[in-house]
Amino acid sequence: MSLLSRIRKFLRDVWAELKKVVWPDREETVTYTTVVLVTVAIVAVVIWLADTAFGGGIRLIIAR
Prior knowledge:
Elements: H1 3-20, H2 26-63
């Protein structure tokens, strides 16, 4: 098989697989995006609080 025919076969296979994909509708996309953004915000706040607490603890230890 030549390189060109392998590339064509690959692209045909990719196109066939893309036809099988069940794409989310607009409502699902908005819902999933909202869930991701809220989760990221919550994790960011938790990390910020932990960083602040550990930083304060380190400052107390160093100040002694």
